Every structure is written in C-alpha cells, then in structure tokens.
Amino acid sequence: MLELSRLGYSFVEGSCNLLFDLRKFEQIPLSSVQRRLVDSAGYSEMDDKDKERLFGEIRAGLFNTDRIFLDPHFTNGIAATRYVNWLNDAVVQGAMLYKIVYKGDSIGFFIIKSIGGGIYYPFLAGMYGGHQKSGLGLNAIYQPLSCVKSIGGKKVDTYVSTNNMSVLRMHTRLGFEIGHINNVFIKHNA
User: Contact at 8 Å (CB) between 103 and 92?
Assistant: First the structure.
C-alpha cells in the first residue's frame, strides 16, 4: 500500500466479498415486521419501460455513495452514465435485470448473473428515491436471494463497498459471511 501511495495512487474504498449459502435461506433471521415487508414484495423481469425508469433514478443520483460519484474529478452525470452503460452491457452479456415490486409499485431493482457451479452474483441493486428510507431496503438484498433460490442457485457471491456501511451491516444481519476484502485504489492522470 505504501508503494501504491508513492506511485500516486489513493485508497478510495474497501470492497467486501459476501457469501450466502442458500441452504440457509429459510433460516434468515427476520423480525415479524421484516417478514411482512419481504412477503408483501416480489420481483419480476424488467421491460424497456422499467429500464427507462431505472435509468432515470440513476441519473437522479441513486448511487450517491459510489466512488466515481464521490470523486471531485468526475461529474455526477459521468457517474450515472457509467452505471447505465454497465447495466446495458451486462444485460447484453446475459445478466438478468429485475424490478422489485411492493404492493404493485416498482420500488427498486437488482441484476444478477451466473458465475457457474450454481453460484450467482447479484452485482448491483438499489431502492428508488421515494423508498430509500422507507424500511423496504431489505428487499434489495432479500429478493435477489429469493430469485436465485427459485432458479436453482446454490450460493450467492457478491460485493459491497465500505462506503455503504448500512448495506454492509444489513447483509451480515441476514446471514452473509465475509469472504475477503479488496482494497480499491485510484490514480488520476492529469
């Protein structure tokens, strides 16, 4: 780390690898309120109209803890475009994009891809603006687990940024185990 610093790289975040064995899905420790929230929600694949809504939410600042969003060398628009392009590319490459639905209303999203051997990687999820502090955020973690289990997956392998501690805490409360932590460095070229 000292050598990277000497070379002009700066530490920006840790990336925590989190693992969940779906044999433990039925034992997820949920309070009665949390159980009602996840049982009242679900997910379905996105259509083009859903994707436009998602992209609008991203452009409005959905990912405001992202390292690019927080970096003064980039604009919030560049950070948003990065996510939109990433999602579009991932879908073309076979990732599955879902909306999270609560009482008939689209409240968030997640995207997953198979990494082989019954292991799935939900690599991005979020709650839409009006629902971020509603108590429904649990669904951004729970619904991907439910989805992977329903398609026959055995394990979930994902990452959460240390810039988003509330989401990291929620994962560990639901039974995810920490696999490892990657340190992320950046260097700006002029």
Answer: no
Tell me the C-alpha distance between 79 and 73, whole Å.
11
Domain ranges in the chain are 10-186
Q: Please spell the DSSP secondary structure of 136-154, one letter per residue.
A: GGGHHHHHHHHHHHHTT--
Domain at 10-186, CATH from 3.40.630.30, 3.30.70.970, 3.90.226.10, 3.90.1570.10: 3.40.630.30
Q: Could you list the pLDDT tens digit for every one of the 190 residues in the chain?
A: 889 999 999 999 999 999 999 999 999 999 999 999 999 999 999 999 999 999 999 999 888 888 888 888 898 899 999 999 999 999 999 999 999 999 899 999 999 999 999 999 999 999 998 777 777 889 999 999 999 999 999 999 999 999 889 899 999 999 999 999 999 999 998 7
Torsion (CA) 173, 120, 84, 164 in degrees, nearest 10: 20
Which residues on neighbouring strands pair with residue 140, listed in sequence order?
A: none
Three-state DSSP class for residue 56: helix
Category of 135 on φ-ψ map: left (φ > 0), alpha (ψ -120 to 50) or beta: left
Q: Nearest to residue 67, comparing CAs of 143, 174, 163, 153? A: 163
pTM, two decimals, is 0.92
